[in-house]
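Teaching note: in complex prediction, the entire set of molecules is handled at once rather than each chain in isolation. The prompt given to students was simply: 'Predict the structure of this complex.' The entities are:
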Amino acid sequence: MSQALISVDQLRVIYNQGKSNEVRSLDGVSVEIYAEEYVIIYGPSGCGKSTLLYGISGLQAPTYGDVFVDGKNLAKMTKREKVQFHQTSIGMVFQAFYLIDTLTVLDNVCLPKVFRGESLVQRQEAAMRLLQRFGISTQADRFPSQLSGGQKQRVSIARALVNNPKIILADEPTGALDSESAQNVLDIFKDINSTDKKTLIMVTHNPEHLVYADRVIHMKDGKKVREDINKDKRPMEILKKEGDKAGNKEGLQEGVAGALETSSPKGELTDAPEKISTELRLLMRTFKDLSLKQVGVLLIPFKAKQLLMHILSELTEEQTSSAESLLKEFLFKNIDNNILKTKLDLDMEKGGAGWNKLRAISFADRAQEIIKHAEGVGKNDEASLLSVTNYLIRIYHLKLEDDETLLRFRAFVKLRMENKIDRFGLQQRLDVPRQLGGVGLYKGTAEKVVREMEMIMLLSYSA
Ligand code: ADP
Ligand code: MG
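The expected output is the structure of the full assembly:
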């Protein structure tokens, strides 16, 4: 019972180990964090704060040492357990927000729940409550680009809280905000620590923030140099054991977020029919701003669902749901293309998906091919571009009039692969007549090509 909630033991993270450009981002850091503590990780830029935070989140694997959360060694978790861990135990907030620009505020907050397969009403109610609490419920149907930085950060805090995790991790959450919005975020954090009893770990290099924390871990050059205790929240038995050495500094102000709404959820969500198709809308939209590679693994269950919906249309629910499980295994790389084929083909009684052989083969090969192109997106090289464009030309039988049109087609696909345009930008360029600088595809064909590209882009957010 008196165990630490998070226990970091001699954590080392070394990049380019053994090479001339070796960097010891973390050089043997040990930290214990107790339930309901508010801990700040403080130090100059480059001292390893983010690395420590990502180590605690399991997004950064240790080179040496161990990280335990709730008694579990993160490095020993399977990918599946890690996904579970991210869905239920921790919420993350970043300096750059990482909201998805093509989803509404409400959908952004709901997103972690989509991965868990909760009903739409459950998802939206929980999300709306948080938006109301943080004073941004009137922005629910707007898009992130229409919000101020402070509002965006409140949306991302709502997203971090929506699955009600015990632990919130925040990496320089006020780093991109003006001072008033920064204060608002600090007030919210204080409130979710003291009222909601969340264990909170915040990275900052701003000394003005330190007063908010129960404990401050000072870092320098990849090492912990000091811990300051403002207020000791460790369990009594541990304090007794250690002898109460905590310098109990008083004087932490009690002011709680001024701008927070407290009204109860409105009943408007349950009876809005156009909201029923959230999943479909997710599929139809671009996923272009989820660029944080490290969180890609969290998307795998969602990717499996979307890839399935994309490829299939005419199987029974049972056949599709067992195939979805198989696709998940495939995306987790627990099974390969051959096993995927075999299991799709196998009778349901024998644990398969009950498809026929032909369908199983063409499905598995198609999935494999899309994944291959998705992997090419990150490479950003000529070969991957050629491979994607040739694939699109082949499967949609594109008849590109001349070399000039082919070059244009490649250039536009390249822009999309580099995220310089979104799906609508691509659609338009493919659709516009050649004389006006486009590719001149039929509208329906352009749509199909764009859909395929978006699936490739979704899958490219790497695990
Ligand atoms: P902080 O968050 O305190 O600014 P970081 O944890 O981001 O510091 O980085 C600590 C050190 O590790 C820095 O010197 C940084 O350049 C280095 N570093 C971080 N990520 C990588 C990486 N992927 N490859 C090489 N070095 C890295
Ligand atoms: Mg950092």
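Point out the following to students. Residues 15, 23, 25, 43, 45-51 surround adenosine-5'-diphosphate (ligand 1) (CB under 6 Å). The first helix runs from residue 49 to 57.
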